[in-house]
C-alpha cells in the first residue's frame, strides 16, 4: 500500500484536462440538481450515485458524515450491503485517523491510497467493527485499487468525507482541483439538507408537542390522558407499538395504564411487579432514557415473541420526579430512528400532566373525605371567607337554622336578620355580636348562647363556638363556626334556676333564725364560767350555718341577677381599708397561710357598692385560701391604674396565691355559673367567681386571671374610681354569660 498523488503521463494529463474542461461544466450541471434536493433521504443517495455513474473508473462510493460518535456512513453506491454485515454497517463509526475517510477527516486533506492487496488493506488502521465492514466490501472489489477520500468542507465546517474506490490503473476521470471544487458543492448541498432537516424536525417537534399538549388538555381523566398521549406519540415516532406505564411511588410499582398495537400479555413484565424487577428499572431510578435492543435475559422475551426487536424507555418527569415511563417498541432500527430531542420535552409535559391529574384526584379525594366528615357531624358547621361570605354549611346547619337556603353570596354580617339571632333576653344581635363577626375579629369562643324566635313565637336556643381560620402568615382568612341546639338544656336550666331561687328564698328565713340562735348559744357558752363542753360543737354549728347561709345568699344573688333586680348601692369606699377588713375576717380560716396586704397608699378611694365589693374580695381571698397549700403566702395588692378599654382611672386589686394554678383553657370557664374545676375537693357551688364577675362588671370594671398551671394564680380586678354607665355591649355580654352548663 502506498500513499501518493496519482502520477500521470504528460499526454494523459492533457487528455485529463480536456475531459476535465468539459467535466467541470458537466459536474456543475449535476451539482445544480443536488442543490435542489433538500431532503437528506433524497440527496445522499443521489450524491453517491452521481459519482458512481459519472466516473467510469469508480467502483464504490461511500458518503461518510461527521456525527457526535464519529464518521457514519449515510449512503453508498456501487455495491449492496451483504446481509451478514448489515448490523455492523449501521453501527460503524470511524474515529479520526481510522480508514481512509477517518484519515482525510483528521488531516482535512485529500487522501489517496493505492495498492494491490485489496480494499481492506488500503483502509489502514480501523476498529474491528470497521474492519469487518471493509473486509466485506473488499470482497466485492478487485484487489488492485485506488481509494480516494476527500473531505467535505462547507465554509469552516467539515461535514463529512466522500470516499471513492476506483480501478487502480484507470484515471479517476476528474482533476483533483476540480474535484475539490465539486466537493465544496457537495458539502454545501449536504449542509443545506442538514439545515433543512433540522428545520423540518423542529417543525415536527413543535407539531408533535402541540398535538400532545392538545391531547393532554382535552383529556377527561388519567386513563383518557395516557391513552390519547400514547396514540399521538406512536403516530409521531417510527415505533410499532408502545405502552404508558404509571409509577406508583408508594408501592414502588409500575402499572400499564395504556397500550397500543401490542397484547397486554406481552407487557406483563412491567405490570404490578416491583420496579427493580422490570426491564426499565434504571429509567425509573435515574430518570434517564434507555434505548436498546430487547433481551430475553432482561425479561423481555414476551416482547421479542410479539415481534419487537428494540425498545426506547423514556422517563415521564415532573420536575425531578419520575411519574411514569413511556415504552416504545419496534424493529432494530428503532433506537436509531427515534428522535430523542422531540420525545423528551413531550415526556416532561406528560410527566407534569400526570402529576397534576394525580394532585387533582388526591385533592378531590380529600375534599370528598372532608365533606363526609363535615356532613356526618351532628352539630351545625358553617365556614365563611374573610369577607364573611358563607362558603360551607353542612346539612345539620341547614336543619338547625331551619333555612331552606343559606345566603352564600352576601357577607353574613350584612344580613343579621337572616337567622334572626337574639341574645338570651330576646334583643336582636348587632352585626358586631354575630358569631361570625366575633370569629373574624380573631376571637375564639365557646358556648356563646343565643336565641332564635321562630315565626310561631316559640324560642330555640343555640350554643355557638367559633374560631378564626388563620393562614401561615397569621392572617385571618375566614372563620369556622359550630353550633348546636340547646333548647332542651336551656329549659331544664331555667327550671332548675327557678327551683333553686324558690328553695333559697324559702330556706333563707329559717336559716337566718338558726344562725342567730347558734351565734347566741355560742356567745353564751364562751362567756360561761366553768367547763366549755359544748364550745366545740357550737362553734362548728355556727360556722356551718354561716356557710349554708352564704350558699343560699349566693343562690339568691343569682336569681336577683336573672330577674334584673341586682341593684348597687354606691358610696365612697377606701378599698385599702375594705381589703384589710376582709383579710382580718378571713385570717381565722387561713391556718398557717401568710395573708399579706400591700397598698400603694393608705387610701385608694372608689365609688362602689361596699357590700358587693367586700363579697368579691371575700370570695377571691377565700378561694386563694381554699386552693393553696397550708404554708404558702397569699398577697393582696392594690394600686392606681386605668381601665383597659377606655383608660378611665381605676384601682387594680390583685389576689395572688401559690396554689395549683388554672390552665389557660379553664381561665374563662371558672367564671361560668356553677362551674367547678374537675377533681377539686374544696366545698362550693361554683357560683363565687360567677357572682364576682357579675358584680365587677356591673360596676363597669374588669376581672381576669393570670396563672400558669403549677405556679399559682393571680386574680386581677380593675374597679373604676368613678361610677360608670354600662355600655350596651357589656350588658349583652352579661346575658351570654348568664348561661352555663348544668
Ligand atoms: P367554688 O370555689 O365554689 O367552686 P368559684 O366560682 O369560686 O366556685 O370557683 C370556681 C372554680 O374555679 C373552683 O371550683 C376552682 O376550681 C377554681 N378556682 C377558683 N379560685 C381558684 C384559685 N385561687 N386557684 C385555683 N383554682 C381556683
TrEMBL record:
It catalyses: ATP + protein L-histidine = ADP + protein N-phospho-L-histidine. SMART domains: GAF, HATPase_c, HisKA. Residues 444-498 form the PAC domain. One of its GO terms (biological process) is osmosensory signaling via phosphorelay pathway. It comes from the Bacteria. GO terms for cellular component: membrane. Residues 502-723 form the Histidine kinase domain. Gene3D superfamilies: 1.10.287.130, 3.30.450.40, Histidine kinase-like ATPase, C-terminal domain, PAS domain. Transmembrane segments: none annotated. It is a multi-pass membrane protein. Its main location: membrane. It is found in: Membrane. It holds the Pfam family GAF_2. Keywords: ATP-binding, Kinase, Membrane, Nucleotide-binding, Phosphoprotein, Transferase, Transmembrane, Transmembrane helix, Two-component regulatory system. GO terms for molecular function: ATP binding; phosphorelay response regulator activity; phosphorelay sensor kinase activity; protein kinase activator activity. This is histidine kinase. It comes from Chloroflexus aurantiacus (strain ATCC 29366 / DSM 635 / J-10-fl).
Amino acid at each position: 500500500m502506498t500513499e501518493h498523488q496519482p502520477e500521470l503521463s504528460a499526454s494523459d494529463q492533457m487528455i485529463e484536462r480536456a475531459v476535465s474542461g468539459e467535466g467541470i461544466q458537466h459536474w456543475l450541471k449535476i451539482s445544480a440538481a443536488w442543490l435542489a434536493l433538500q431532503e437528506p433521504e433524497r440527496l445522499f443517495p443521489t450524491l453517491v450515485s452521481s459519482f458512481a455513474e459519472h466516473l467510469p473508473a469508480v467502483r464504490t462510493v461511500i458518503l461518510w458524515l461527521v456525527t457526535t460518535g464519529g464518521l457514519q456512513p449515510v449512503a453508498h453506491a456501487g455495491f449492496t450491503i451483504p446481509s451478514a454485515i448489515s448490523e455492523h454497517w449501521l453501527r460503524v463509526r470511524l474515529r479520526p485517523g481510522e480508514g481512509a475517510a477517518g484519515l482525510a477527516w483528521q488531516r482535512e486533506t485529500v487522501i489517496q491510497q493505492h495498492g494491490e492487496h485489496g480494499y481492506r488493506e488500503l483502509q489502514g488502521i480501523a476498529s474491528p467493527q470497521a474492519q469487518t465492514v471493509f473486509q466485506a466490501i473488499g470482497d466485492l472489489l478487485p484487489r488492485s485499487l485506488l481509494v480516494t477520500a476527500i473531505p467535505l468542507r462547507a465554509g469552516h465546517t467539515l461535514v463529512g468525507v466522500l470516499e471513492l474506490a476506483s480501478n487502480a490503473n484507470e484515471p479517476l476521470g476528474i482533476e483533483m482541483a476540480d474535484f475539490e471544487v465539486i466537493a465544496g458543492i457537495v458539502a454545501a448541498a449536504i449542509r443545506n439538507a442538514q439545515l433543512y432537516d433540522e428545520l423540518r424536525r423542529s417543525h415536527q417537534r413543535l407539531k408533535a408537542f402541540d398535538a400532545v399538549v392538545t391531547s393532554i388538555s382535552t383529556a377527561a381523566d388519567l386513563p383518557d390522558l395516557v391513552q390519547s398521549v400514547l396514540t399521538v406519540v406512536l403516530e409521531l415516532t417510527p415505533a410499532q407499538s408502545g405502552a404508558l406505564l404509571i409509577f406508583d411511588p408508594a408501592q414502588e410499582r409500575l402499572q400499564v395504564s395504556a397500550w397500543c398495537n401490542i397484547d397486554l400479555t406481552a407487557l406483563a413484565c412491567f405490570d404490578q411487579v416491583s420496579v427493580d424487577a422490570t426491564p426499565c428499572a434504571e429509567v425509573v431510578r435515574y430518570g434517564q432514557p434507555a434505548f436498546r435492543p430487547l433481551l430475553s435475559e432482561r425479561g423481555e422475551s414476551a416482547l421479542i415473541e410479539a415481534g419487537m426487536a428494540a425498545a426506547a424507555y423514556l422517563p415521564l418527569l415532573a420536575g425531578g420526579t419520575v411519574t411514569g415511563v413511556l415504552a416504545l417498541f419496534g424493529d432494530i432500527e428503532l433506537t436509531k430512528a427515534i428522535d430523542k430531542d422531540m420525545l423528551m420535552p413531550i415526556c416532561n409535559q406528560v410527566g407534569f400532566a400526570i402529576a397534576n391529574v394525580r394532585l387533582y384526584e388526591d385533592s378531590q379525594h380529600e375534599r370528598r373525605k372532608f365533606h363526609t366528615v363535615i356532613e356526618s357531624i351532628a352539630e351545625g358547621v358553617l365556614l365563611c371567607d374573610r369577607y364573611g361570605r358563607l362558603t360551607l354549611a353542612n346539612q345539620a346547619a341547614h336543619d338547625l337554622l331551619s333555612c331552606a337556603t343559606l345566603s352564600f353570596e352576601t357577607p353574613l354580617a350584612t344580613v343579621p336578620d337572616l337567622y334572626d339571632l337574639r341574645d338570651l333576653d330576646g334583643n336582636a344581635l348587632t352585626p358586631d355580636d354575630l358569631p361570625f363577626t366575633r370569629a373574624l375579629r380573631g376571637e375564639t369562643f365557646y358556648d356563646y348562647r343565643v336565641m332564635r324566635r321562630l315565626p310561631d313565637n316559640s324560642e330555640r336556643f343555640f350554643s355557638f363556638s367559633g374560631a378564626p381560620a388563620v393562614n401561615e402568615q397569621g392572617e385571618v382568612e375566614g372563620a369556622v363556626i359550630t353550633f348546636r341546639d340547646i333548647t332542651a338544656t336551656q329549659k331544664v336550666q331555667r327550671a332548675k334556676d327557678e327551683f333553686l331561687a324558690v328553695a333559697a328564698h324559702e330556706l333563707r328565713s329559717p336559716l337566718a333564725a338558726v344562725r342567730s340562735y347558734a351565734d347566741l348559744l355560742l356567745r353564751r357558752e364562751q362567756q360561761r364560767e366553768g367547763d366549755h363542753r359544748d364550745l366545740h360543737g357550737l362553734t362548728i354549728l355556727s360556722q356551718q350555718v354561716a356557710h349554708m347561709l352564704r350558699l343560699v345568699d349566693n343562690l339568691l344573688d343569682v336569681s336577683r341577677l336573672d330577674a334584673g333586680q341586682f341593684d348597687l348601692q354606691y358610696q365612697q369606699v377606701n378599698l385599702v381599708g375594705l381589703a384589710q377588713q376582709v383579710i382580718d375576717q378571713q385570717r381565722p380560716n387561713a391556718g398557717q397561710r401568710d395573708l399579706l396586704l400591700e397598698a400603694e397608699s393608705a387610701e385608694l378611694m372608689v365609688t362602689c357598692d361596699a357590700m358587693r365589693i367586700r363579697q368579691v374580695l371575700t370570695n377571691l381571698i377565700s378561694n386563694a385560701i381554699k386552693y393553696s397549700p397550708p404554708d404558702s403566702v397569699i398577697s393582696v395588692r392594690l394600686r392606681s391604674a386605668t381601665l383597659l378599654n377606655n383608660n378611665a382611672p381605676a384601682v387594680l386589686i390583685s389576689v395572688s396565691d401559690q396554689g395549683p394554678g388554672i390552665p389557660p383553657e379553664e381561665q374563662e370557664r371558672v367564671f361560668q355559673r356553677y362551674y367547678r374545676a374537675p377533681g377539686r375537693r374544696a366545698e362550693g357551688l361554683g357560683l363565687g367567681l360567677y357572682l364576682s364577675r357579675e358584680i365587677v362588671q356591673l360596676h363597669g370594671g374588669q376581672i381576669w386571671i393570670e396563672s400558669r398551671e403549677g405556679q399559682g394564680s393571680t386574680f386581677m380586678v380593675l374597679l373604676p374610681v368613678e361610677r360608670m354607665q354600662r355600655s350596651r355591649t357589656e350588658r349583652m355580654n352579661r346575658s351570654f354569660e348568664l348561661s352555663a352548663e348544668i
